[in-house]
Amino acid sequence: MKRRSKGLVVALILLLTIPAVWATGTKEAAATESNVIKVFGNFRGEEAARFDEVVKIFNEKTGYNVVYEGSPEFETQILIQAEAGTPPDIAALPQPGLMKNFAEKGYLKPLAQSVLDGINSNYAPVWRELGSYDGTTYGVFHRVSAKSYVWYPKKAFEAKGYKVPTTWDELKALEQQIIADGGTPWSIGFEAGNATGWVGTDWIEDLMLRTAGPEVYDKWVNHEIPFDDPAVQKAFSYFGEIIQDPKEVYGGATNILTTSYGDAIKPLFENPPAAYLHRQANFITTFMPEDIQANLADEVGVFALPAIDEQWGVPMLGAGDQYVAFSDKPGVMEFLQFLTTWESCVPLAKAGGALFPHLDQNLADYGNPIEQQMAKMLMEAKVFRFDGSDLMPAEVGAGSFWTGMVDYVSGRDVKTVLSTIEQSWPQ
Predict the structure, then answer these.
(1) Which residues have a Cβ under 8 Å from the Cβ of 20 and sit 6 or more positions away?
(2) Tell me: the pLDDT tens digits for 84-128?
(3) Residue 198 belongs to a domain with what CATH number?
(4) C-beta separation of 160 from 369 below 8 A
(5) Per the domain annotation, does 12 fall within a domain?
(6) Which pTM was predicted?
(7) Eight-class DSSP state of 190
(8) Residue 412 shares a structural domain with residue 310
(9) What is the C-alpha separation between 414 and 368, in angstroms, rounded?
(10) Can you give the residue range of the structural domain that contains 253?
(11) Is 8 part of any domain?
(12) In 245-341, which ranges are continuous DSSP H helix?
């Protein structure tokens, strides 16, 4: 009987204590959950792993528990979460329109003064403007990419005595010098499967920034001026001077339309070069021949597509991640302030493939001299704008604008091309 009684007592004790243990565990889990600062974005895999190194620095410095999660369905999910009232604490928005949409609906928290101080002291004014809506700043830019670069075969270029142009007139003079020497200035490739033509839209966007300026560019992107406006025709005329002259482009119009955008860089590294200039984003280095990639600093040169109207300096076209706050949980603003510092960029800069607008950046932290040069050009740009076709309605930006560029290279007159694109804009 004593044994039975002891067993009953033990059983009763267990029954009484297990719920207490469960309750304690639940409280601990809840407490842990409340301390997590959730950051949500669209980059995954290796890019996410690199960003985790940034997060790790912050967590170790502050004791907060920032956690990043990436999803291929980010843009759909963040809209659903925001509407449902269950957004993350911080989101990395790849499209500036998303920030304005969320800010207009009152979902976002204005940046604290400490974050604004970081932006004001460490960014060119354009970055605060791009992160603001209706006079209030919501976004912090961190990693960005840029497209307004011209690449050239360094050794062959220097052997010919060619000089890097710093103005549009100097660029045109260089083209004529190359032609006079029996060479071809440009290599351009539009082919990209169902996306054929997007390379041409980048050219027009760069030229719009250089001929019409950022304010008109914004009106064009937002359809506040028609697509066939004289300002757009002017940008096309500058592009036409290049692509409509068979001496200017390797293989002429036929080659432009049939050459893959990734293969278009390769003629620069033939012996002798079949062309000397190629305009493309910083990603193009991954399409260069392997022996060239292995020695970029010696083999490859790069400069910014020169200014046309000097009042806007040398504009940069590109994209970037903008971090915004959906909550005012402790640690949220501290993390956004951390993103304004160069310390938060170093792991990504060392890994390569990323650029940053921070004014205090140490260019030596980049993985190679090419990225150092590109970062300096980006840092010095007074004007930066997002890829216009990405901001336009899909029917235009990923439709009639692409096909319109193909039509223009094929010989259709510019007024017909632009009128057709204008008619496609959704009402």
Answers:
(1) none
(2) 999 999 999 988 889 999 999 999 999 999 999 999 999 999 999
(3) 3.40.190.10
(4) no
(5) no
(6) 0.86
(7) -
(8) yes
(9) 41
(10) 149-314+392-424
(11) no
(12) 252-258, 290-293, 296-299, 332-339
